[in-house]
Design brief:
The protein is 48% helix and 3% strand. The protein is built from eight helices and two strands, in the order H-H-H-H-E-E-H-H-H-H. Helix 2 packs across helix 3, helix 2 runs parallel beside helix 4 and helix 5 crosses helix 6.
Length: 233
């Protein structure tokens, strides 16, 4: 079912590609176990903590409950409009939870193994889901299941950039992911980026998530829109 999911006006999310993506990441890294101790683009996490966080962000422990009949679903971008995301307490909570999860994971397997295992389990859960089911997402409210899945794609793509930056590698975000993510970032910006920027979808992802700083020329083209960057963190 998931190979045919539609997310708003976006192209299809093909979750069946994820296991291949996980294996490709491991081949790309070519790292020794001790390399997973290195500091990352997401301080204060180490690389293994970042990988555990990526896995945790897509893990579906239990199916989200169905929203009450008639509940108006929020869009994917609303997930990032929660005011608590900009607080120090929210960020510290993420750091502490990830470190606790990492300790638990490493007692049983490597971070890379946990990522691949989590992808398989998530695919199995979502494979029987109705993408149009309106569910209740904690601290967000009602969302179409498909739109919640889009937020998980955003998470993996943004942190994939972190891994690439940490390893001094070119980003490997897939074109399919970029197509799905673009409408979320445009919604957060509340308009399409000016054409003078000459941005492609990867440029929007990198600047919109704060993984690349805006240049002075880009700020000039953006005008007052530059103040909205990064669009999410």
């Amino acid at each position: 079912m998931l190979a045919g999911w539609e997310c708003g006006g976006c192209r299809v999310i093909r979750w069946r590609r994820w296991p291949r993506s996980a294996r490709r990441w491991r081949r790309l890294w070519g790292l020794e176990p001790e390399d997973f101790q290195r500091a990352t683009n997401c301080p204060p996490w180490t690389l293994q903590e970042l990988v555990v966080h990526i896995a945790s962000s897509i893990r579906v422990g239990q199916r989200p409950p169905t929203a009450p009949l008639g509940a108006a679903p929020r869009e994917a971008a609303d997930y990032y409009r929660r005011p608590e995301r900009d607080t120090a307490a929210y960020r510290q909570g993420n750091i502490d939870r990830t470190r606790e999860q990492t300790r638990a994971v490493l007692a049983q397997m490597t971070a890379a193994q946990w990522l691949e295992q989590t992808i398989r389990a998530t695919m199995a859960t979502l494979g029987v889901e109705d993408p149009d089911r309106v569910v209740v997402i904690d601290r967000v409210g009602p969302m179409r299941m498909a739109d919640w899945v889009v937020t998980r794609v955003v998470s993996v793509a943004a942190h994939g950039l972190d891994v690439a930056l940490t390893l001094s590698r070119p980003p490997w975000t897939t074109p399919a992911a970029l197509v799905v993510i673009e409408p979320v970032l445009v919604s957060l910006l509340r308009t399409r980026p000016p054409g003078q920027l000459g941005w492609d979808q990867l440029d929007l992802l990198q600047t919109g998530t704060g993984r690349r700083a805006l240049t002075s020329t880009e700020c000039q083209h953006l005008g007052s829109l530059a103040d909205r960057f990064p669009l999410l963190s």
